[in-house]
Amino acid sequence: MAKPKLLFLAHRIPYPPHKGEKLRAYHLIEGLAERYDVFLGAPVDDPDDWQHRHALDALCARVHIADGRGRSRRRAAVEAIARREPVSFAYFRHRSMMDWVRQVTLMDRFDTVMLYSSGTAPYLSAVNGTHGPLVVDFVDVDSEKWRAMGESEGGVMGRVYAREAALMREAERRLAARADASLLVTENEAALFGRVTGITERVHAVGNGVALEGWEDACSLPSPYPHDGRARIIFTGAMDYAPNVDAVTWFAREAMPRLRAAGRGVVFVIAGSNPAREVRALASDDIEVTGRVPDMKPYLVHAALAVAPLQLARGVQNKVLEAMAARLPVVTSAAALDGIGAVPDISVSVAGSGAEFATAIGELLDDPAKADAMAAAARRMIEDEYSWAARIETLERIIDRADPATRERSAA
């Protein structure tokens, strides 16, 4: 019996699944592919990802990967101003993707169309004919991210971010009004989406999971750190992403001087791709900036603890979940803990100021038994509550209950 067909359009190739947006998209596709023939369309904008353009061929019924390497954000901004649209739309819109969507929707009727990220909204105008439920995985409330960045940045860039926030908010409202189901990554994010868009019907929370495969034997992987007697404190993430850049520069400024003054023999490891200029400038004797690494597992399992000092955070922080899966004690800001059911002082340590981060780190380094107990509690929570299979079951129930008969399919 033929499987139903699902069209999955993503704003970036969901591979390799080594950071939040790609990890969630990859595992959704992997889970849905057991029930559906998945037709995947996505662009590549990071040159390092082009080598992975065929990585999902075996998982999907059909794949179209658009070549967006070298795409200019400045040119996208000019185009967006001319079109009076968000820069995100202009940046992620690709002619070959538009052509492929037109062609594939002429040839096949899809039982479900799924957009991953609000940045894929322009592709709806290329969808031909009738189709089943339209599901939009917003993941986070992007407009709120831009609003917060605008308030934090100020000046010219603050106004640029404020423009993006206003246009994205209206786009989110229009897109949710068309969708048969809108997904957000946490209940809090779903509630926020309702407050800022005014749309609460057909809005659902589908959280992230954690892939536990590979972690059991990760400790046998060679350590990437020199044996110099210093404990490694690790932060992971895409290091050209503004909230991550803000987090590590804040930690280097507010927490590291206190750790040095206390005589702590520690090294702050910033592990992640494409470190921005401000991040590269942090490199010193006790701050290591790795850039892209082939495998994050050895960096995590051989660290003493992980930190997530995010001041601007949207949705679930996969960096926190992954560190917990690695049986690593985590010191996190309250903002980075949203949507994660960890109990402070049991499965994580929560800190606010730089002094609080330094104190929490010192306590865990001084008390290995406490650190081990916290790491073990965190791992148990991940095993009990964060399987991807459960997340896919929730998503499939949402798709099954979505009713496109009451929705209009007029082009955007």
Q: What's the overall geometry?
A: globular
Average per-residue pLDDT, rounded, comes to: 92
Judged by helices, strands and strand pairing, the structural class is alpha/beta
Could you describe the largest sheet, including whether it forms a barrel? 7 strands, parallel
How large is the radius of gyration? Answer: 22 Å
List how many beta strands DSSP finds. Answer: 13
Q: What's the CATH H-level superfamily name of the largest domain?
A: Glycogen Phosphorylase B
What CATH first level of the largest domain would be assigned?
Alpha Beta
Total number of domains: 2
Give me the CATH architecture of the largest domain, please. 3-Layer(aba) Sandwich
**Which strand order spans the largest sheet, edge to edge or round the barrel?**
3-2-1-4-5-6-7
Span from first to last CA?
Answer: 34 Å
Low-confidence stretches: none
Strand content: 15-25%
Q: Roughly how much helix do the residues carry, as a percent range?
A: 40-55%
| Total of DSSP H or I helical runs spanning 4+ residues | 15
Order of helices and strands: EHEEHHHEEHHEHEEHHEHEHEHEEHHH
What is the fold-level CATH name, i.e. the topology of the largest domain?
Answer: Rossmann fold
Topology overview:
Layout: E1 5-10, H1 20-32, E2 37-44, E3 62-67, H2 73-83, H3 87-92, H4 95-107, E4 112-116, E5 134-139, H5 142-153, H6 155-178, E6 181-184, H7 187-197, E7 203-205, E8 231-236, H8 242-254, H9 256-261, E9 266-271, H10 277-280, E10 287-291, H11 297-301, E11 305-308, H12 318-325, E12 330-332, E13 349-350, H13 354-366, H14 368-385, H15 388-401
Parallel strand pairs: 1-2, 1-4, 2-3, 4-5, 5-6, 6-7, 8-9, 8-11, 9-10, 11-12, 12-13
